[in-house]
Design brief:
2 copies of one chain form a homodimer. Chain A has a single domain (13-264), classed as Chorismate mutase, AroQ class superfamily, eukaryotic (Chorismate Mutase, subunit A). Chain A is 57% helix and 3% strand. Chain A has helices at residues 13-34, 54-62, 69-83, 122-137, 146-165, 167-177, 179-188, 191-198, 201-218, 236-261, and strands at residues 220-222, 227-232. In chain A, strands 1-2 form a two-stranded antiparallel ribbon. Chains A and B meet through helix 1, helix 3, helix 5 and helix 9 of A and helix 1, helix 3, helix 5 and helix 9 of B.
Chain lengths: 272, 272
């Protein structure tokens, strides 16, 4: 029997923080890998998915995708990862469906530390990635490497989404630490108040600095003699920007959306 | 219509060298990502693939795998990548089969720059990776993250294999530059002579130094204040070792095997 990481610790803020910091490395690695290929915009356009038959495109649209090649690849990979138990994790939210059952047995029963919720901002993540991030890290044009680019997109989107949905743990943890204050704001439907409560500008600034430094470190051209430090595969400042403008706001959106649903299970409507 | 990178340049040694150097980065990134998880040895043992039904295991064995969970994941991902035209590349050799056809149309007709061959050392790559590399980069034990480890194994193995089979381009390029000397050794079946001819100790030493430096750069813990340079996610010296002891010898094995078959198409046996 396999054993899971002890879930009792999963809501400790220091453990969440360590996981979030490690996930930055994966995101930076993945963006660097995607930057090897130009934008290759055809992979995002259903009408330009040369060779993808009408039948397969129809199937894809039924699953929630646009029918573009990048969606198709994402869905195919998600089906494989579903078999590997990916979506048994409470912070993994699939982009498309339906998905097959895992072929691995469930992990040893772990308490579900999150309240029931329906938070899903995948459409936004997809749009931000394709419309804002890819055009900033990739050269313009098309080199024909549609498969490589679409496969690497899956890596980027999955690592970004994992980081963003970790906000669920952050939100639950903050709620438990300060249940009364949060409950009051939740009952008032005070979205802005919740947003302000979870916002720590100094922490966010440090995150941006750290990610910028990671991109500068991991994306440099390294020769046998030294790390040049002058030529980068992605622009370090944009990596920091990416976290400031997209990753952290989307994470906070997940947190606020979760918090607004946090009391629903505990307080069923009176007239039920 | 999509366009491929111009194949006329693919055999220029400087272009091959640049591609090989860039591939080192991907391999180092992938090893760092795998090192997040312990060895999780169950994924490599057919008898311990908990939950993988006898039916699926049987299917897997029919496809060339042992039936272990890691093989199963590799085969599933290869099926997806086959649809994305991965194995239309002359340096991509699938580990398992059969595979589905691409859903993308073929790239604009590019001349096949390699001679016909049957070089396939995937069994050795699998064995070296699982028996020699994983135990050196991963902690002992099992954290239950079987899906994540197996999925990351696919990334590691694919990036390693791409680098190793790029030896096919290296070999063809060297053959064309010095056709007479190579042809003589090939006709004599002089495996050692070919091995010596493609070996450039000084170049290999530089490769090892460069990969070691890459691992030291990319695997360091980076804080918001600075790159610490003192704590590494994988040991830099082992990354260099990995290239010296496994990656470069396997690449040269591909080169020699290819060269030994290089004249077959040009010189059919006399008694045919």
């Amino acid at each position: 029997m396999t054993t899971a990481a002890p879930d009792a610790d999963v809501l400790k803020l220091e453990n969440i923080r360590q996981a979030l910091v490690r996930q930055e490395d994966s995101i930076v690695f993945n963006l660097i890998e995607r930057a090897q290929y130009p934008i290759n915009a055809d992979i995002y356009h259903p009408e330009r998915c040369i060779g993808l038959s009408e039948y397969k495109r129809h199937q894809m649209m039924a699953s929630g995708g646009s029918g573009c090649f990048a969606d198709y690849m994402m869905y195919k990979i998600e089906k494989v990862h579903a078999q590997a138990r990916r979506y048994a994790q409470p912070t993994e939210v699939p982009f498309f469906g339906p998905l097959p059952d895992p072929v691995l047995q469930p992990l040893a029963a772990a308490p579900n530390v999150l309240a029931a919720h329906s938070v899903d901002i995948n459409a936004k993540i997809l749009a931000v990635y394709r419309d804002e991030i890819v055009p900033r890290i990739c050269a313009t044009g098309d080199d024909g490497n549609h498969g490589s680019a679409a496969v690497q997109d899956v890596q980027c989107l999955q690592s970004m989404a994992t980081r963003i949905y970790y906000g669920l743990f952050v939100a639950e943890s903050k709620f438990l630490i300060n249940r009364e204050a949060y409950s009051e704001m939740i009952r008032r439907g005070d979205r802005q108040g919740l947003w302000d409560a979870i916002t720590h500008r100094a922490v966010e600034d440090r995150n941006v600095q750290r990610v910028t430094r990671k991109a500068a470190t991991f994306s440099q051209e390294v020769s046998q003699d030294n790390a040049t430090g002058t030529k980068f595969k992605i622009q370090p400042a944009f990596a920091g920007d990416c976290f400031e403008r997209y990753m952290m706001p989307l994470t906070k959106e997940v947190e606020v959306s979760y918090l607004l649903q946090r009391l629903d299970a505990e307080e069923p409507p009176q007239d039920c």
